[in-house]
């Protein structure tokens, strides 16, 4: 066994056959299929995206204004730019205070501004460790990759490269959703607790995931920790046969949203074998949660506005 990986590479390169000219196959027409132009494909993609967005959950009357996804990064960059000018002591102290606040509360500000409740009880997964097995490998096969495998077999370096498999995001969201409803059960009055617990089981009135749409924002890789938070996308009524939830999956390593999920959940009576509505006390509680979301959205928006104004005031004096 070679001790030096470079010698393994030299050995492999000497033994591997030289690549031959690639075999080129002439395309054969298929009479049973009509050609589809790329513009048509792009149009279909846009139509699907628009349809998914309109159906996913948040009604126009309840939709929040679109936020710049990089607003938090922009604030941090503005603070850094001010600090680089070596500002007066009082300005510098305020800027550092703003910077430390953003560093400590980035998730609460980012999620709260969208109406998510960020206290620990509302986090379906809180700083959940990404496992090595959650990832899938991506290889550029060749002599160097073969060396990588051989050396990895000896236990010297990891053998897998890539990011978390996309299907894992839906699993994270599912775990977070179950824990979200479990939290409602844990904080319910004793006489109502079992009914909440039964929602996530096929007994009596329960919930069935009708559809889920996931938007992937950035790749997550080991080692990292994620936080999953759900919110009600629509305020339910006593006649509602569906619960619409939005979820965000945050990457701690990136300090940003890694994925967004939009869930349509049907209420189902397992005993009767048909669609159903929630019992009144559940609707009352979910409506209360929705109002808490809106209150938190406004409070967080006010905090962000104060940060903007404070930083802007210092910028006006420095620049």
Automatic annotation (TrEMBL):
SUPFAM superfamilies: Thioesterase/thiol ester dehydrase-isomerase. It comes from the Eukaryota. Residues 14-37 are annotated as: Disordered. Residues 283-317 form a coiled coil. Keywords: Coiled coil. Gene3D superfamilies: Hotdog Thioesterase. Signal peptide: none annotated. This is Thioesterase/thiol ester dehydrase-isomerase. The lineage of its organism: Eukaryota, Fungi, Dikarya, Ascomycota, Pezizomycotina.
């Amino acid at each position: 066994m070679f001790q030096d990986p470079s010698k393994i590479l030299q050995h492999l390169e000497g033994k591997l056959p030289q690549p031959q000219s690639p075999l080129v196959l002439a395309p054969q027409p298929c009479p049973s299929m009509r050609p589809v132009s790329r513009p048509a494909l792009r149009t279909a993609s846009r139509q699907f995206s628009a349809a998914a967005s309109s159906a996913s959950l948040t009604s126009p009357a309840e939709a929040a204004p679109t936020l710049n996804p990089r607003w938090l990064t922009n604030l941090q960059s503005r603070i850094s730019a001010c600090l680089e000018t070596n500002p007066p002591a009082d300005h510098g102290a305020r800027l550092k205070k703003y910077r430390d606040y953003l560093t400590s509360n980035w998730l609460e500000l980012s999620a709260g501004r969208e109406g998510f409740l960020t206290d620990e009880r509302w986090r379906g997964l809180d700083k959940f460790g990404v496992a090595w097995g959650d990832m899938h490998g991506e290889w550029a096969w060749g002599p160097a990759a073969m060396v990588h495998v051989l050396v990895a077999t000896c236990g010297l370096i990891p053998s897998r490269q890539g990011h978390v498999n996309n299907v894992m995001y839906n699993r994270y969201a599912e775990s977070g959703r179950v824990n979200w409803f479990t939290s409602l059960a844990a904080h319910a009055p004793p006489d109502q607790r079992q009914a909440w617990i039964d929602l996530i089981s096929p007994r009596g009135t329960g919930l069935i995931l009708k559809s889920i749409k996931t938007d992937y924002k950035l790749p997550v890789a080991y080692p990292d920790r994620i936080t999953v938070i759900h919110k009600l996308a629509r305020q339910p009524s006593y006649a509602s046969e569906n619960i619409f939830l939005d979820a965000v999956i945050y990457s701690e390593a990136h300090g940003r949203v890694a994925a967004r999920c939009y869930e349509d959940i049907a209420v189902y009576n397992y005993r009767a074998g048909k669609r159903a509505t929630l019992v009144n006390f559940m609707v009352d509680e979910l409506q209360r949660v929705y109002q808490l979301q809106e209150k938190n959205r406004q409070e967080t928006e006010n905090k962000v506005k104060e940060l903007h104004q404070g930083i802007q005031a210092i910028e006006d004096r420095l620049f």
